[in-house]
């Protein structure tokens, strides 16, 4: 019963409340820890690639240690307090509502034909230059963002929570993943400043997302088919184009969405003033339109619900044996 509460309540809180502005979100503190360690390593004389491994290890140890200490202290005070704090931490490890809200801002601006506002809203979500994107390119950027983050922000954390429940440490497992993900988002860039110090973080993120990206993409495929999207084409494009991405993992959710919606993703983008060519994903059977952003959000929620049911089923079997 405890683990059902620790799964269902955080998911519902995330879907309903999301990430309110000025909310004391733990991920912000993880970011602060990463920046502190990064500054210390850069000021030392250590080789930056070796320093990157130290940065990754110290961050994971610190975050896991702090989380464990908080939960142990809460348990000493009251078991119910431990449950409440655990629910809070698990809720903040999920991002479906936040992803929904932020990408709908792009959708609304596009629906109102306000291309400048849509570019501005997208710029908060992606690393690419959005200043001269067309309506189709802005839409593509938003769809790709939802597709990729369905894994990073929703399904992968849920999978780590589920695995953590087997080891009686769902919060620690959730924040182990979130720390890895945050490290990658802060230092895992392939540019002059971060290519060495961010090497370890980027590689660890690839490893952490290896199974979630593949299993999660099948859940997205199932969710999309239940919503009436093109299952046959979704499977075809997933099988054909999953490697058409510089990331070993991001091509999976993007290819599923491209196939389910009969659209084409990928292509050339500009990052920090430099054009970066990406292979295309999917076939241009249909023109990409703003409503595809909402379609992708629906696929995200459908796959999340399927995963919650799957985790509950596995946990029920475990604890009744």
TrEMBL record:
Gene (name only): cobD
Gene Ontology cellular component annotations, sorted alphabetically: plasma membrane
Function summary: Converts cobyric acid to cobinamide by the addition of aminopropanol on the F carboxylic group.
Top-level taxon of the source organism: Bacteria
Protein name: Cobalamin biosynthesis protein CobD
Molecular function in Gene Ontology: ABC-type vitamin B12 transporter activity; ligase activity; threonine-phosphate decarboxylase activity
HAMAP family to which the protein is assigned, alphabetical: CobD_CbiB
Keyword Mitochondrion: no
Keywords, in A-Z order: Cell membrane, Cobalamin biosynthesis, Ligase, Membrane, Transmembrane, Transmembrane helix
GO term, biological process aspect, one: cobalamin biosynthetic process
Pfam families attached to this UniProt entry: CobD_Cbib
Pathway: Cofactor biosynthesis; adenosylcobalamin biosynthesis
Localization annotation: Cell membrane
Transmembrane parts of this sequence: 53-74, 211-231, 299-317
Keyword Transmembrane set for record: yes
Membrane topology field: Multi-pass membrane protein
NCBIfam families hit by this protein: cobal_cbiB
Listed InterPro entries: Cobalamin_biosynth_CobD/CbiB
């Amino acid at each position: 019963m405890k683990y059902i509460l620790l799964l269902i309540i955080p998911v519902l809180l995330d879907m309903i409340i999301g990430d309110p502005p000025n909310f004391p979100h733990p991920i912000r503190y993880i970011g602060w820890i990463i920046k502190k360690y990064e500054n210390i390593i850069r000021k030392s004389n250590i080789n930056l690639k070796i320093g990157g491994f130290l940065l990754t290890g110290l961050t994971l140890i610190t975050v896991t240690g702090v989380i464990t200490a908080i939960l142990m202290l809460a348990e000493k005070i009251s078991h119910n307090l431990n449950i409440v704090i655990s629910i809070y931490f698990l809720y903040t490890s999920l991002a479906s509502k936040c992803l929904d809200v932020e990408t709908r801002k792009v959708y609304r601006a596009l629906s109102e034909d306000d291309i400048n506002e849509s570019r501005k809203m997208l710029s908060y979500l992606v690393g690419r230059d959005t200043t001269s994107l067309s309506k189709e390119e802005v839409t593509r950027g938003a769809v790709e963002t939802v597709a990729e983050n369905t894994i990073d922000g929703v399904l992968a954390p849920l999978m780590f929570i589920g695995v953590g429940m087997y080891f009686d440490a769902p919060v620690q497992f959730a924040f182990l993943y979130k720390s890895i993900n945050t490290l990658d988002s802060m230092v895992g860039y392939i540019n002059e400043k971060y290519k060495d110090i961010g090497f370890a973080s980027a590689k660890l993120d690839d490893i952490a997302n290896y199974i979630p990206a593949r299993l999660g993409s099948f859940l997205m495929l199932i969710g999309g088919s239940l919503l009436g999207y093109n299952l046959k084409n979704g499977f075809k494009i997933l099988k054909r184009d999953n490697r058409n991405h510089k990331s070993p993992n991001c091509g999976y959710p993007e290819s599923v969405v491209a196939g389910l919606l009969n659209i084409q993703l990928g292509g050339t983008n500009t990052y920090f003033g430099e054009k970066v060519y990406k292979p295309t994903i999917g076939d241009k059977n249909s023109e990409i339109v703003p409503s595809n952003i909402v379609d992708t959000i629906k696929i995200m929620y459908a796959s999340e619900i399927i995963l919650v049911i799957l985790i509950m089923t596995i946990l029920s079997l475990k604890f009744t044996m």
